[in-house]
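Work Package 3 (structural annotation) set out to generate three-dimensional models for the target panel prioritized at the project kickoff. During this period the team completed the workflow that converts sequence records into discrete structure tokens, so that structures can be stored uniformly alongside our sequence database. As a representative example, we reproduce one entry of 305 residues exactly as it appears in the project archive.
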Amino acid sequence: MGDPFFSRWYAGMHMTTLLQFVRALGILALVVPHAFASSGLLSPVVHHSLLVELEDIQQRLDARDGSPRGALFVERASLQRRLGRFDAAGRSLRCAAVWNGASLAFAQEKCRLLTATGDHARAAGLLDRWIGLTPNDTASLMLRAQAHLGAQAYEAAALDLEVARATDFKQFTIDAELWLAQAWTGARRPRKALEVLDRAVRDRGVLPALIQAAVDLEVGARRFDAALDWHAKEKPRSGSTPGWHARQGDLLAMAGRADDARAAWEAARTAHSHLPARRRCTAAAIRLLEQLDHKLAPSNEGGLR
């Protein structure tokens, strides 16, 4: 047996360190939530919130407090799905089916779960009856469109999304705009996808995600001057950032404009040097500077011409 005082001290220190780590993750999630969103991970704050909600739902189910049990099981399935507990979510939906399997909320949640687990064809068919009854149900149209995208039924996805956008623009998110462009691209209609993105920029403003999607489409079609035109639309917002200049240099290099590309990369390196010290020391900033140094090295000069 070890010294009991030391054991208690070590356990206390270990718990303190763990709590500090959890708090740090929570602060990070509040400061840079996009870091978690872009990785597909739940931030610690959101994860904890979902667990609290799940516990509350379970207590209400156990207490049999008179709440509609079918709706509670659907809500529990939704929380479990968002936590990545797909098997548990499926069991909750089977329970919900006993109580209220004919509801729209049940069908929508089952569609989300089937889409999350890759059963896209079944997911798309689940909402057909409900959309037939209420053809202007924007939420159901967007859910079915996501399932169609997963099943590579691109034209069907595009048609659902176009109807949803026309029906209720307020519910039609930026992500949905990108899904619509993806659908038309998958349907081998890139011009239509670009029209969608151009309309989205007019209606919503110059947003990086929309501009980047348009740039990628133009680059895929080897229309580099058009890609540069799209890229220039974002300049008033972020033209002084090293990333914007670096991307401009890459596009100019693809267009065969070697001298202009080098000038853009030099501008990126200058912008990098003007960043605050804490931002220059991030992994992304260090990696960008290394890439710029490589592109501007004399040994690469011939490759740009």
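The chain has a mean pLDDT of 83.
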